[in-house]
Amino acid sequence: MDWIKLTVTTTNEASEAVINLLMENGAGGVEIDDSDLSQVELATYFQAQAGLVELLPELEQKIAQLREFGLDPGKGTVKLAELDDDSWADVWKKYYHPVRLTRYLTIVPSWESYTPGSTDEKVIKLDPGRAFGTGTHPTTKLALQALETVVRGGETMIDVGTGSGVLSIAAKYFGVEQIAAYDVDAEAVKAAEENLALNGMQDAITVGANDLLAGIKTKVELITANILAEIIVPLIPQAYECLKPGGIFITSGIIVDKKDLIVSELEAKGFVIDQVLNIKDWYSIIAHMPTTDEV
């Protein structure tokens, strides 16, 4: 089977939004090349019969329309290149290798053999071909670092926009007791289920399709959301209603231009900001719902 490589040239600021557009149009994993500080190249792969020639102008238009949401997509160009099946497989193996993301976490592609360097190191197996992100983007690194900071063990948690399931898997390793993971995209739910199985956690974490926290009445101690800042805004009041007093809300996927907006929205709802983490222009915010003693 032949494959087509689709490459979008955009900016760091707009990369998460463009990735979301690619996912909405059937992309699996996305390669991120941000070695050039002035732009980012995002690449993904489709089966050759996927009708991408017809999709191209529509995708370029949607990328250009990101300006209406305050995001600069830069060039916003989309290119196609044909690959045979062997070339496609080699691409994944070329770009994805074991990566140590935090003090305790290492992400390992499903085809790689890897031996942890210490008893404290936890290995998360992911299949990048279906992973909706491989865990190596700064937004995911920040969310994992935040989890590592706040989890004490025994918590209940909701992972909003779970994607590959990487945050849920990490949280389980850290000692979170009960986890429900949701994503609005059914394909993302399927990918998360596959990755949970790779890590032997298919029975330990509940996964389902849901639009953010709409209709969720469960009260938990921890909520994570590594999603676009524009989507975090409507999530904030939902998260407040789903947290127990003192509960922690970790948000990531926030580009520098949106950081103040998210901080403002969190504080306006009543959250207390505990810590702001960043890698270059990407931010993660740790906040908590006040206890009765704080109100």
From TrEMBL:
It catalyses: L-lysyl-[protein] + 3 S-adenosyl-L-methionine = N(6),N(6),N(6)-trimethyl-L-lysyl-[protein] + 3 S-adenosyl-L-homocysteine + 3 H(+). InterPro entries: Ribosomal_L11_MeTrfase_PrmA (IPR050078), Ribosomal_PrmA_MeTrfase (IPR004498), SAM-dependent_MTases_sf (IPR029063). Its EC number is 2.1.1.-. Its main location: cytoplasm. S-adenosyl-L-methionine binds at residues 140, 161, 183, 226. Keywords: Cytoplasm, Methyltransferase, Ribonucleoprotein, Ribosomal protein, S-adenosyl-L-methionine, Transferase. GO terms for biological process: methylation. It is found in: Cytoplasm. The keyword Methyltransferase applies. GO terms for molecular function: protein-lysine N-methyltransferase activity. Pfam families: PrmA. It comes from the Bacteria. GO terms for cellular component: cytoplasm; ribosome. Belongs to the methyltransferase superfamily. PrmA family. Methylates ribosomal protein L11. This is Ribosomal protein L11 methyltransferase.
